[in-house]
Each structure stands twice: as C-alpha cells, then as structure tokens.
Specification:
Layout: E1 2-6, H1 11-22, E2 26-31, E3 43-48, E4 53-54, H2 56-60, E5 70-73, H3 86-109, E6 116-122, H4 144-154, H5 157-161, E7 165-171, E8 173-175, H6 180-190, E9 195-197, E10 203-204, E11 206-208, H7 209-221, E12 227-231, E13 237-238, H8 239-250, E14 256-258, H9 260-267, H10 272-275, H11 283-287, H12 297-304
Parallel strand pairs: 1-2, 1-5, 2-3, 5-6, 6-7, 7-12, 8-11, 9-14
Antiparallel strand pairs: 3-4, 10-13
C-alpha cells in the first residue's frame, strides 16, 4: 500500500513509519520544509497546514503512478511540551484543527481519494471522568482539551463526505521511552526520584508504543471500523499503580510524591491532565478482534525499556 503519514518524526509517527517500511509499504511523509531524499526508502511531500497548503499532486500518486491508499494523520503540538499560556493553547488547537482541515479538504479534492483516513484524537475528549469506566459511547467533556478534540474530529468532515472511511484514533498515554509523558517519567524513576503524582487515585489509560502502532495499522486494514476508536490498553490503572509498576520493573524506590498544589503551581492549567482521571477502555478495538501484545502496565513498561 501507499500510505501518507503526518507527524512522522514524533514518538508514534516514527515507530509507525518504521513498521510500515519493514513490511514493504510505500510511505509518504508530509513535511513542513523542502522535501529531501530519505535513506529509509520513504518519500516526502511538502505541506503547510497553517496556510492550508499541500502538494496535492504528490499526495495523489507516487512517481510510478501508485495511487494513495491511506492516510494516518498524527501531527499536532505536544500537549505536555510547554506551560499552557494563551498563546500555546492556541498552538495546540490550531496545529490539530487547521492541519486536519487541510488534510481532509485535500483528500476530498483528489480524483481518486484514499479509502481510509486514520486521524489522531485523544481520550481527553471525554473530559475528567473520575473512576467511571468510559467507552466510545460516552459524550465529550467540556474542558479545554475536550473542546479541542471535538473540533479536531469534526475537521475530518469533508473527507468523510467524499466517501473516505474516517477513523478517529482516541489515544491514551503512550508508554515509550522516546517521548510523551512516559518519556519524562523514565529518567526520574531511573534516578530513584519517581513517585505518585497528587493523591495517586487518578486513572491513567495507557497503551504500549507497539500496541499503538499495531492498533493504527489495524484501523487502516479493518474496513468495518470508522468513527471513534479508543486506543488504550484493556485495563486502565491508577497513577499509584503506575508508580508501583515502575518501581517493580525498574527496581527503584518510589517513596517520593508530588503534592497536587505543587503540580498546579509548576504546571498551571496543564496540571489537570496530570492529576485528572481518564478510565477509558477500548471497547470497539476489542469487539473487532484486536489483540494486545502488552495488555498490562508492567508489560508496557518492560517493552519500552
């Protein structure tokens, strides 16, 4: 297959591209700079989501005339990369909504649109849900990230109207050492400085990086899946349980704890994502027959290490 990927240099995108290339697929990376040759065999085309610009000719077909089969759209500013100033909240919003609109509109205008668009989203769409078990039938929340996720998903509408199957990959916390929330945790725990955050009772809906990539590819291949699909491990765990698992796997003490007030002082509004709770399950993935390689948090941590 010929598959276009945005966000191809991020934690998830780079692992996905590697997986696709290993299996012999043609990968087209969408980049914001001048395209350049790649040693890994992938190709590049340019886009500028802020200006709603994209190389439609390069997207539509490869140099050998191979049409586009699928798009996996993962680009977006990191939620945990910086403190949430008003300016950075706008960046979080625009990088997702403008980027998705640019992709969806371009696909709708192709003479031969791809059969599927797997578009990134997040479990943050449900808002803070406490200890309630949440699947894809739950309504959206009302906080900042939930509102962003709603607009993010709605921005795919033109592609869906053109007959492209659209799946919204509502991803949880990806357990990987190369980035994301866990990328920040691993160095602390290696030094013996890890511990629970806040009271530790908040649920973290995690997924191993390998399962995340496998689930994205499952969404590309499984013709019956469209709409929202939660990409999380089957059993979400509390932050206290994550802390204990990190200590077990890494054989380090986990005696320290960071009070909620200190987190709010250090992180500002973003602290709600650290001490907030998302107890989300992947009902639609499981119903469709997806099998997790790392269903437990210990297995996900071991795989990342």
């Amino acid at each position: 297959m010929r598959i276009a990927v945005t966000g191809s240099t991020g934690l998830i995108g780079s692992a996905l591209v590697h997986s696709l290339l290993d299996d012999g697929h043609q990968v087209v990376r969408l980049v914001r700079r001048d395209p350049a040759p790649r040693a890994d065999g992938s190709t590049e085309i340019r886009w500028n989501p802020r200006l709603r610009q994209i190389d439609r000719k390069g997207l539509a077909a490869g140099a050998d005339g191979t049409p586009l089969d699928a798009v996996v759209h993962l680009a977006g500013a990191g939620v945990g990369d910086r403190r949430w100033t008003a300016r950075y909240k706008r960046e979080i919003h625009d990088s997702r909504v403008l980027g998705t609109t640019t992709i969806a509109d371009a696909l709708a205008e192709l003479d031969q649109p791809p059969r599927v668009l797997v578009s990134g989203s997040a479990v943050g769409i449900y808002g803070q849900t406490g200890d309630r078990l949440i699947d894809e039938t739950a309504p959206a929340g009302g906080d900042f990230l939930a509102r962003v996720c709603v607009e993010w998903e709605e921005a795919t509408a033109t592609a869906a109207a053109a007959g492209v199957r659209v799946a919204h990959a509502r991803t949880g916390l990806v357990v990987g050492s190369g980035g994301g929330a866990w990328g920040k945790l691993f160095p602390l725990f290696k030094l013996g400085l890890g511990g629970r955050l806040g009271n530790g009772r908040q649920y973290w809906s995690f997924i191993s990086l390998r399962d995340e990539v496998a689930a994205l590819r499952f969404l590309v291949d499984t013709e019956t899946l469209s709409g929202p699909v939660n990409l999380t491990a089957p059993v979400p765990v509390t932050n206290a349980e994550v802390t204990a698992a990190m200590g077990r796997v890494m054989r380090r003490p986990t005696l320290l704890a960071v009070p909620e007030l200190a987190l709010k002082a250090a992180l500002g509004e973003m602290a709600v994502e650290v001490v907030g709770s998302h107890r989300v399950v992947p009902a639609r993935l499981l119903d469709a027959g997806f099998r997790f390689a790392h269903p437990t948090v210990d297995q996900a941590i071991e795989a990342a290490l």
